[in-house]
TrEMBL record:
Organism: Streptomyces malaysiensis subsp. samsunensis
DNA-binding region: 36-55
Protein name: TetR/AcrR family transcriptional regulator C-terminal domain-containing protein
Keyword Transcription: yes
GO BP: any one term: response to antibiotic
Amino acid sequence: MTARGAGRGRRLGLTREKVIAAAVTMIDRDGPDAFSLRKLATELGIENMSLYNHIPNKDALLDGVAEAVLAGIVFPEQRGGTWQERIRAHAAAFRAAAKQHPKAFPLVLTRPTQSPAALEAMRSTLACFDELRLAPEEVVHVLRSYTAFMVGSIMRELGYAIYLGTMDNDQVQQRTEAIAVSGDPLLTATAPYLADSDPDTEFQYGLELLISGLAARVGDS
């Protein structure tokens, strides 16, 4: 017995890739909390049951969205330049994709996946450090430290973690005073900088801190 609406989906030429692409567009527009299979079916002009010809459930679809967004990242080729330059370029590509898909990208960072796109992202990161000739165990530590920084920094920038965001001068002043009112000398001295944050500056500083720390560890200053 053919599911109701399934024939119409086939007539429209729907494929798994098209369903996932539509889901990426919807999530980028409306956010993941507003997303549902029912709304996706309406967007596509089909009935709910037609979706199940292409995806088994919502979790599988969200995994597909994460995979599609990750697969869309064009990581730089790992030829030429220093390892420091390569990891900077790698980080820039990853962050650019996050800014291009600010509402869908958290799925990349929070859904475990063993998709080909995820493995390629991992391989391309490891390749940045290949010339350091680290033992496999240590290069995995480096990979995970880098990944932890990237995930934390991007989630914060996209508003999914504690982040003050852009504030006007009055808001910065109010925040500064609220921090300094404790009277603690450390908090008072840093209050103007704790009160505000620039994502570009914070990202670059954190990345350079990781790079310089690794360079010092391997004796590549």
